[in-house]
């Protein structure tokens, strides 16, 4: 999917640019979150990046009320019809047929009770945001990480941005689910130093039930990534009761050993954290995990260490608990 601006320049639809990240690639990094995703993972913490277009989030606690402020209604070319109020307080913004998608209500809101996710940015716009922190990358071995959503939904502009970053001498990383056509993946890989990939479950039907997609294409793309000699970090977000059983982790270890020859930088077992719930509320979407509560930290921390030890000692996989261990690349 390729977006363009009014001038016809290729753009990415970006939900957020996060500075000084340290967990998605080596060193200090600038992380760019692209919108659009090919999956719907139950534990996704970035629901604003799933849809391929811009989204409006609503924060009622910030609304000044219609008694004190009507700027959003006045700014709306549809007379505020997409805006829902309860007792004079903004409750929701519905991007339905009544909404033109102009986002004038967001721009007008003085208290930021309305938020836009998804801004068109040219390659130059994004590159400028990346290169301004070059000194941090040089000191720490950092760089830029493209994330999502699924960055490979916007593979054309992602490849162009990564090429520009490489020309600027900046280390590049892509975090992806690889649920995409191989040619899109390989176009982006030309300019990618490190690839971070999730394996959510080794059973394809269970993978589908948790994410909305099977894993056959993903596993084939992971094998192709290894064949191309790309530096590869594999992650599993370990969610007890879903994919955290020892049998699944062993099956993942066997895949890394047998199909990839253990030619990866690291296999990270990540703890489930209930994050992004306020964004689901702002979008008017129920949190898919409901009231699920993970075990206490003292329990899951020891379990991740135990599973990592099994992977290292029995499968020869360079496994770690969490994403805090230094990446040797």
From TrEMBL:
<dbReference type="InterPro" id="IPR013785">
    <property type="entry name" value="Aldolase_TIM"/>
</dbReference>
<dbReference type="InterPro" id="IPR034457">
    <property type="entry name" value="Organic_radical-activating"/>
</dbReference>
<dbReference type="GO" id="GO:0016491">
    <property type="term" value="F:oxidoreductase activity"/>
</dbReference>
<keyword id="KW-0411">Iron-sulfur</keyword>
<keyword id="KW-0479">Metal-binding</keyword>
<dbReference type="InterPro" id="IPR058240">
    <property type="entry name" value="rSAM_sf"/>
</dbReference>
<dbReference type="InterPro" id="IPR007197">
    <property type="entry name" value="rSAM"/>
</dbReference>
<dbReference type="InterPro" id="IPR017896">
    <property type="entry name" value="4Fe4S_Fe-S-bd"/>
</dbReference>
<dbReference type="InterPro" id="IPR001989">
    <property type="entry name" value="Radical_activat_CS"/>
</dbReference>
<dbReference type="Pfam" id="PF04055">
    <property type="entry name" value="Radical_SAM"/>
</dbReference>
<dbReference type="InterPro" id="IPR012839">
    <property type="entry name" value="Organic_radical_activase"/>
</dbReference>
<dbReference type="GO" id="GO:0051539">
    <property type="term" value="F:4 iron, 4 sulfur cluster binding"/>
</dbReference>
<keyword id="KW-0949">S-adenosyl-L-methionine</keyword>
<dbReference type="GO" id="GO:0046872">
    <property type="term" value="F:metal ion binding"/>
</dbReference>
<keyword id="KW-0456">Lyase</keyword>
<dbReference type="InterPro" id="IPR017900">
    <property type="entry name" value="4Fe4S_Fe_S_CS"/>
</dbReference>
<comment type="similarity">
    <text>Belongs to the organic radical-activating enzymes family.</text>
</comment>
<keyword id="KW-0670">Pyruvate</keyword>
<keyword id="KW-0560">Oxidoreductase</keyword>
<protein>
    <submittedName>
        <fullName>Pyruvate formate lyase activating enzyme</fullName>
    </submittedName>
</protein>
<dbReference type="InterPro" id="IPR040074">
    <property type="entry name" value="BssD/PflA/YjjW"/>
</dbReference>
<feature type="domain" description="4Fe-4S ferredoxin-type">
    <location>
        <begin position="90"/>
        <end position="119"/>
    </location>
</feature>
<keyword id="KW-0004">4Fe-4S</keyword>
<feature type="domain" description="Radical SAM core">
    <location>
        <begin position="23"/>
        <end position="311"/>
    </location>
</feature>
<keyword id="KW-0408">Iron</keyword>
<dbReference type="GO" id="GO:0016829">
    <property type="term" value="F:lyase activity"/>
</dbReference>
